[in-house]
CreA family protein (Methylocapsa polymorpha), 177 residues
Amino acid sequence: MSLPGFRLLFLGFATLAAVALAAGRGEAASDSPDLIFRKSTVFNLLTPNDKLATYGIDDPIVDGVACHFTVPEKGGIAGMFGVAEEVSDISLACRQYGPVKFKEKFDQGDIVFRERRSLFFKKMQIVRGCDVKRNVLIYMVYTDKLIEGSPKNSTSTVPVEPWGGNDAPKCADWVKG
């Protein structure tokens, strides 16, 4: 195969891979996350830098609760074409920012947000639960992989508090089962 033919084949594959990766982002209950900011962590001369990116999401069925997570984003050639496998180091913080209103009942461990972290096999998930005894919403982020997942995770809790003179709802009333 000639060099121009190889370049065309490589660019076609890279474009297809980038489209496949973009199609898998934000595939769960929540819409795409809001990018808050990025900070470079590793300088690369001719390709994109490695970065830490902080995103925000709203819980799709619990009004008044938002989560922010920070993920590493690979630069370099693989990052530039969207084919890098991202690491599992993800931090999470969730807070009540208004009156809590539940839209529907949920199962313990329901997915709030899911995003691919590699081209095919790895995904990050944020899941929700309710500590019935303490009236606290619990959010956990972790990554899993088709063959072997990662034990790396982060947990954040949101005590459901009264807001604006209204009583706090009980998350236990909204847990299925």
About this structure: Residues 3-174 form one domain.
